[in-house]
User: Fold these one by one.
Assistant:
Number 1:
Amino acid sequence: MYSLIFYSVSEGISIDSRTNQATVFSILEQINAGALPIILSKVAIYIVIAREATDLPDFTGTLIMTLGEAQLVSQKVVCNFKDQLKGRMVIDLYGIPLTTFGKLQIKLFDDQRLLGTKEVDVLQAPAITKRIMIRCPVTGKPVPTGMNVDINSFKSLEFPRNTFSPCPACGQSHSWEKKDAFLEPDEKVS
Ligand SMILES: [Zn+2]
């Protein structure tokens, strides 16, 4: 019978190519959303399972993610043990829309049997709105893009490429995407 040894839900996982060691970072326990819906840009699921010598060397299971009544993900997961009794799976899920507050449950099934459950609370946090800034590519000064966002959702939100003009620092038009953007600091930006 297959058994679950380790199971985590996080924002990322890296595998060291030299040592083959896995590092799980930013474990997801709670999501603070100012307003819904939000899009979870990435969820990384790390599963280590063991088999007995009598189990098949190919494991096929199902990963099901629900939030309240809604099923958000249902995905087949496969692990090839080769000659080992222990195997691991890394599953990356992208762009998951959260439309209600409540418990996000991620369940791993082996055929009909539940192997493990992870829960992440999706909580309503008071909205604190800040201006989205970029650094003006001409002057290097921080400038507002004209968009505001709730600080609780900024990290998980996706932004399409945006353009604004005129730039308050140089008067030109700039286009930006999320990797260029940051929130205005608490002190006044000049
Ligand atoms: Zn500029």
Note: The mean pLDDT is 91.
Number 2:
Amino acid sequence: MKYVDEFRDPALARKVLKKLHEVVADIPRAKERPLQIMEVCGGHTHSIFRYGLEGLLPKGIEMVHGPGCPVCVLPMGRVDDCITIAEQPDVIFTTFGDAMRVPGSKKSLQQASAEGCDVRMVYSPMDALAIARENPHKRVVFFGLGFETTMPSTALTVMQAKREGLNNFYLFCNHITIIPTMKAILDEPGMSIDGFLGPGHVSMVIGKQPYNFIASHYNRPLVVAGFEPLDILQSLLMVVEQLRDGRAEVENQYARIVPEQGNLHAMAAVNEVFEVREHFEWRGLGSIAESGVKIRQGFEQFDAERAFSVATLQVEDPKSCQCGEVLKGALKPWDCTAFGEDCTPETPVGALMVSTEGACSAYYSYGKIDVHQAG
Ligand code: SF4
């Protein structure tokens, strides 16, 4: 299959791995402590474990799993808000499937559905719009979440709702932006990340220029990476070559998908419908300035936060949950006492165990970890 088989070729992978080992062996500081490379995107985390790449890497590389799984960084208070909305009379609450099982402080959307709320799984915001057309006497709410990758389709859906004059469609906007979050990670005291694999899907929309400050201000290399095994290995090679040469640049390994300038049409739709929020709360990372968007004036009739007066309270994670430390790369998933015991993909305690892109779920499914020995 074009663009798949050639990126999973074992012979080519062995060649890239050999080169990767050689380059890391040429970096003296990698002998003192492993080079920490953060894959920002949960899709990369999933691929790294699914294809067993971590076990093939030189000992001088340590992968740190970043915050790029939107389900995983959704705070409990926002899940509680979803349930408050879903429990209102005449509401049909629509959501992507992976958000159904994220625990709120009392229940998940899946549990709310079992208790009688009309919660429906959709594959796109346009599905939610179709439900609104078919149910003019119901209030249909779409739970919009995700980074810049999914923002354009939500924006286009709101624009379409306005064109059609629909008055029973609402967006509960929880879209977030990656750049302020990366800056927050880089500003953490004791930050020890040496380089980044940049998120491929987000970059397809925003392009590569927004990352330039990481190289120029923080002196860290970033390589925008694809999701197949060879994409990831080649991107890691590009990062360590920069570290060996003392360079810090933004490079684009995923050029077959990511245009240098991003997708200008998609960004225009996003800017028409959304504006930046002052702050947005992230699970484990706290409140980060300008890291989320809300609906602009002109589209406010579709804003579920106005129509349903949600509380948006900050709710602490359970004491046993160490998602925040895992998200910041300070702990590995198996360091969490709940990992594999109280917290499994069937019974998630924290959000990192819910989505297949979550670090805990990826480790649990593919990591070959004996949880009884790991702690
Ligand atoms: S094991 Fe569960 S509770 Fe612990 S960090 Fe992972 S998702 Fe959070």
Note: The first strand starts at residue 35 and ends at 41.
